[in-house]
Design a protein that fits this description.
The protein is of the alpha+beta class. It has two domains: 13-167, Glutaredoxin; 174-214, no CATH class. Helices cover 30% and strands 23% of the residues. It has helices at 23-27, 43-54, 56-61, 74-88, 103-107, 156-169, 194-201; strands at residues 13-16, 19-22, 31-36, 64-70, 96-98, 131-136, 142-148, 174-175, 186-188, 205-208, 211-214. Strands 5-4-3-6-7 form a five-stranded mixed β-sheet. It has a four-stranded antiparallel β-sheet with strand order 8-9-11-10, covered by helices on one side.
């Protein structure tokens, strides 16, 4: 069963490079970015985890925790982290889940359509996860999902931009337009009439009766 936006993110308990993780407890009052990858010691994944390691200060500024998921073991993760740091120049200090049981991969629907589990002789290729991304809010609800095929590396600048958009609109009657980046104008929700919107956000830039821009509220 797929995980949809506004679902409560499936809770789980798993071992990780940072010890035992009880996901909802670990999340606390933060946002989280969960991202899976096919397996350890693979070239695209090493570049992706390196990108996340380099962006650690940016996620911290946004009160956001990051957590990786792999069907490999904690022992493999610990060895692979050295390669990630060698490549990126930044330590991968975020937890990486040991999901050899496939508990998290199944709960979050991270496995491709053609995956199968042989009764014996299971190899990593049988259970390689696609490149899934979930942004989870402090209320434990899924706010955003992205899924890439295994041969396409993720754009973590876009993931960070999407996180900014999620946080900018969280609990506020606004939306972000195409290609929005922080600092640009936002769209006023149709739940507010023009008088209400002006009172709340100030002068509006009305392009169409249903398309009204405002400065992003602080």
């Amino acid at each position: 069963m797929s995980v949809r936006i506004n679902d409560i993110a499936p809770d789980f308990t798993a071992e990780s490079t940072a010890g035992t993780i009880h996901f909802h407890d670990w999340l606390g009052g933060s946002y989280a970015v969960i991202f899976s990858h096919p397996r350890d010691f693979t070239p695209v994944c090493t570049t992706e985890f390196g990108a996340v390691a380099q962006l650690a200060p940016e996620f911290a500024k946004r009160n956001t925790k990051v957590i990786g998921v792999s069907v490999d073991s904690v022992q493999d993760h610990a060895k692979w982290k050295r390669d990630i740091e060698t490549f990126s120049g930044s330590p991968a200090n975020f937890p990486i889940i040991d999901d050899t049981s496939l508990t998290v991969a199944k709960a979050y629907d991270m496995l491709p359509a053609e995956y199968y589990l042989p009764t014996e002789g299971r190899a990593p290729a049988h259970t390689a996860t696609v490149r899934s991304v979930y942004i989870v809010g402090p209320d434990k609800k899924v706010r955003l999902t992205m899924t890439y095929p295994m041969n396409v590396g993720r754009n973590f600048a876009e993931i960070l931009r999407a996180l900014d958009a999620v946080q900018a609109t969280d609990g506020v009657p606004i939306a972000t337009p195409a290609n929005w980046v922080p600092g640009e104008d936002v769209i006023v929700a149709l739940s507010l009439n023009t008088e209400q919107a002006t009172e709340r956000f100030g002068t509006l830039d009305i392009k169409l009766p249903y398309l009204r821009f405002a400065k992003r509220p602080i």
